[in-house]
Amino acid sequence: MGRYVVGVDFGTLSGRAVVVDVADGAERGSAVHAYRRGVLTDWLPDGPALPPDWALQDPEDHREVLRTAVPAAVRAAGVDPAEVIGIGLDATSCTVLPTLADGTPLAELPELRDRPHAWPKLWKHHAAQRQADRINALAAERGEPWLARYGGRVSAEWQLAKALEVLEDDPAVFRRAERWIETADWLVWQLCGRPTRNVSAAGFKGLRQDGRYPAPDFLAALHPELPDLLPKVDGPLVESGARAGALTAEASGWTGLPAGVAVAAGAIDAHVTAAAARSVEPGRMLAVLGTSTCLIMNSDACHEVPGVCGVVEGGVTARGWGYEAGQSGVGDIFAWYVERALPGSYADEARRRGVSPYELLDALAADQPVGGHGLLALDWHSGNRSVLMDHELSGVLVGLTLATRPEEIWRALLEATAFGARTVVEAFTAAGVPVDELTAAGGLTANRLLLRIYADVLRRPLHVLDAAHPAALGAAIHAAVAAGAYPDVEAASAAMGARHRETWRPDPARAAAYDDLYAEYRALHDHFGRGGTDVLHRLRALRNRAHHTPGAC
């Protein structure tokens, strides 16, 4: 048997590939490819303007990662491709696209290229909130048993809300689609020539529970044609780490890997990262800190957790119950502040010091006493995923004075995301799902001030994963299982998972001070998010009316 596997992680703005040793998970080579189109939020390429809250992607960007990053990673590793025994991949989720029966994306048909609904909808496409609201209301009214598995609310980010949005806004595209498929599953299809559905995405994003999707009569009550979605999402279900097929000759030409090597089932990025972090045992929660945050864990029992994004049997690994929660804006909030709100004088100072604006703000904010800025923020710039599941909420900042400095606002934003994470952890523990260990992974773990704040706010040790590309490593671990090198993801994770780099422990004095600030956060959270006022929804509606572009979709 060969010695290596390849993992490919398809993120929001780029894809990355790693070549790792099957024996111990050591990285031998890697490569990153930035998407040419990135995220389409304002305009289609050579097409119409997009309305607010849209986020699309180009499927060709994803194919190009397979053609460039995979062979580049193999070259960087200096290994013989013949020694590669498998390839696995993950993608952001719920990122879905409509295709023909042969897998051709509708966005690539000349007659549909200028139709926004024909394009893949990225996870942070939030324009389907009104559809999500109707799904939630109907499910609650009918007492649908699956609703409690999603914390009582279905997200606008997920499959059903997005499909209903397409059906209502562009029914011709909905009818033309012969498949409605997650990007990770579509990419596996491209590699092995066989359409499959991964159990995790089908459960967490497709509402598949106890062996079935929502019933046809429920779908018909939302729209008479919506039951037609069921054959579009049907297909062989494949468990985490299982073999989906073998690499085709065409895909071999793209990747440079031998035809016939094992292709693992598609996976959700945060979920495979749990394997990389050795966080697949019950009680071990993983926080993937990136543009958004996903909080993932396994349990040996099914509990209903208010505000959770899903509880799915076999959802993280084939054994046990997988749980997911999250925050829809974290790194995106920090990037928004630096790119759109930071005074130019700070950018100039950062250049003078030879650091990034992020590093400058961290340095200026690091020594502030807890609560010394007099500010409090709600981390809802991209809506709220957990525990409110409402993407028509928006960010809030209170306590500003004429003396407030940019670095104080920066720290308040960092703290807001930590408070949001604490809200999620408390929801788990209150529902009887203990969080015995917390590990962090993702790009934001490079920010040491952020890690210190999280440990203090959460009042628990925070372990930090030592891996440059944790999701890609997790995808490679799944590839090793698909290739038969290990019997299951748990065994492969124990052998190939990354070691923790360091542990951040809470400071008792700062933690106590943050308790007081967190209490105020919860008061603000419940006022704006749980019925104290609907001003954020009214402001969103006014904005949407003001920016409505007739004919845009």
Automatic annotation (TrEMBL):
Keywords: Arabinose catabolism, ATP-binding, Carbohydrate metabolism, Kinase, Nucleotide-binding, Transferase. It catalyses: L-ribulose + ATP = L-ribulose 5-phosphate + ADP + H(+). One of its GO terms (molecular function) is ribulokinase activity. Residues 286-483 form the Carbohydrate kinase FGGY C-terminal domain. Pfam families: FGGY_C (PF02782), FGGY_N (PF00370). Residues 4-274 form the Carbohydrate kinase FGGY N-terminal domain. The keyword Nucleotide-binding applies. It comes from the Bacteria. Its EC number is 2.7.1.16. SUPFAM superfamilies: Actin-like ATPase domain. The keyword Repressor does not apply. Pathway: Carbohydrate degradation; L-arabinose degradation via L-ribulose; D-xylulose 5-phosphate from L-arabinose (bacterial route): step 2/3. Belongs to the ribulokinase family. This is Ribulokinase. It comes from Micromonospora sicca. The lineage of its organism: Bacteria, Bacillati, Actinomycetota, Actinomycetes, Micromonosporales.
